[in-house]
Structure formats: structure tokens, C-alpha cells
């Protein structure tokens, strides 16, 4: 009989649900400006923080739960957007990129020898690059030119760099207060 994957422990499930709710709460702050129909929002900082606090798997699952609820029609995205429209519009790449963002950030934090500020800054920045790697080409599709989409998306960079720094600082404080929040780093056999 094949082994079944163990269910998520209750504490992990609670963290995933609470963080999905945190992402939704950040959606209460309206977006503004932006390019090609993609607003500047506070909400995209949550997947960065989620990966840094919860790790790759739980961070990914919290974003996936949030996106699933949004796709069902709940108006959880900034500006009260919900349903399938955000997944086919110009912001679709950035929204879907949140999954990669949380995963990349979480992988780096989980496998780091230390969870100090330089490591957390690197992890959060790499997560942001994950958002951009998917989001910028989608903006390029909507404006009709990949290069123009990338250049236009750079308007998000200053605010997003602030979110990277804030996420790293918050994650550092939380990891200092709760050092066992993430599973211990796997030791390498020599």
C-alpha cells in the first residue's frame, strides 16, 4: 500500500490560514497609479513576508489559499477585486508571481545557516525578482512590447524595495522572538 502524505499539523494549517487572511487585510488598502492597469499596492509585500516567516511550503500554501478564495469571487485583492478577471488581466502575472515569490523567499530562509538581516534581505529580494519574472512579461503582453512592459513595470521598484526591507526587518524580529518558527535546517552529511 503506498504511503499517504501526512496531513498538515494543526499549527501549520493555522499559520497558513492566518497568513492568507493577512494578505486579504492588506487588500483593504486601495491601490493607486501603476502602469497598464496594474496598480501600486501594499498587498504584494505579503508573499515576501509569508515566505520569510513561514518557509517555502507554508508560504506557498498561504498564497495559494488566498488566490483560490479570490478566484472563487471573494473581493480580496486591493480595490475589492475578485473572481477570475484578475487572473486574465494585466496584473495576472504579478498576482500569480506571488506563488513563486513566497516559495523562493522561503527556500532561501529555510536553508540559510543564519536568519540574520543580510540573509533575509537577500531572500526577500530574490522573492521580489520572482514576482517580477512573471509579472513584467505579462505587462509586456498587454502593452504589446516586452521591453516596454519591463521598463514600465520599473515604476513599482522603489516601493517594492521598501517592502523588501520592511519584510526582512519584520522577519528578523519574528525569527529572533520565535526561533523555532521554521523547521531546523537539514544537516549535511560529511
Features:
globular; 190 residues; 2 strands; mainly alpha; Arp2/3 complex 21 kDa subunit ARPC3; two-stranded antiparallel ribbon
Task: Write the SSE topology.
Elements: H1 10-26, E1 32-35, E2 38-40, H2 45-71, H3 92-111, H4 117-143, H5 146-153, H6 157-177
Antiparallel strand pairs: 1-2
Structure notes:
This protein has a two-stranded antiparallel sheet. It contains 6 helices and 2 strands; from the N terminus they run H-E-E-H-H-H-H-H. It is mainly α and 190 residues long. 63% of the residues lie in helices and 4% in strands. It has a single domain, classed as Orthogonal Bundle (Arp2/3 complex 21 kDa subunit ARPC3), CATH 1.10.1760.20.
Helix-strand category:
mainly alpha
Order of helices and strands: HEEHHHHH
Q: How are the strands of the largest sheet arranged?
A: 1-2
| Strand tally | 2
Main CATH class = Mainly Alpha
- The second-level CATH architecture is Orthogonal Bundle
How many whole angstroms does the radius of gyration measure?
17 Å
Quick recap:
The protein is mostly helical and 190 residues long. The chain is 63% helix and 4% strand. Strand 1 and strand 2 form a beta hairpin.
